[in-house]
Amino acid sequence: SRTAGTNRRRDGRKIRDQATHPAADRPAADTGARAPKTQTHDAPIHTFATMKTTRILLTILAAGALTACNGPVKPRFEQLTLDTLLNHPLGTCQVEYRFASIANADKSEALRIIEQSNTNYFFHLEDFEGPAEKGMDESLAQLAKELRIGDPDYTSVHDMEYDTSTESEGYVIDSLLCYSIYRSDYMGGAHGNYSTEYHLYSIASGFEYTAGDFFGEDKMEALGQLIRQKLYEKYDVSDDEGLSEQGFFPDMFFVTDNFKITPDGAVFIYNPYEIACYATGAVEVEIGRKELEAL
Q1: In what side-by-side order are the strands of the sheet with 176-186?
Q2: pTM
């Protein structure tokens, strides 16, 4: 399935590690919104509630000083779109792309790195270097190969209607760029698939954060316990046995890197099959700022 990108979402680390990782790159000030089709916009200002851990607080103050003096370039988004119908031996495949591209990526090395990472993630590419438009072409060529379009040795009497849709959006909060990718497709089988990917970057360096990077590796055990407790509360159960009855796989639980930062705290998302069965759906866990401060 082309929605399975969350399992390899950190394969882009080769790109992200081109970026430096100074402490001052963690949160400092400004936010953006989803880009409208074929238009660009600057990010509106929004103040992010800071965490009290010494590590995060110090970096916020450092980043705030950096922004006040000579802040990082803020991204402007424009939408790159594609709607096309591919004819293949099994029938047709409707393809829709809505890629939130950083229009001013050439104004900052950090934004260039982020744009390249997003291009690889969005179009399911490995180690691709180049503009998003070429990434789109590469993605279509890859899809055509998967569908065996033009393969003279492959024929079928079936008339299947497949579809795949991917869209993205980005916003800035403090010195962080939160980038979201939403996928849905039907490529045969009993049902379609869908997924959400979150990617969190420093707009000062282009560094992409994992949960361990952002919250601290020493906080991962406590964070995992907090997420599990949130699941108990959300599904009205008291233990892992109760979660199992709700379709979860408690033994497969982990602290996901698939998270975004919001003004109120953080949101972690687990896509179908990651920690629960398909029928359970995507599992979203919201953790408030004060709860994160207490870790």
Answers
A1: 77-88, 91-102, 160-173, 176-186, 193-202
A2: 0.78
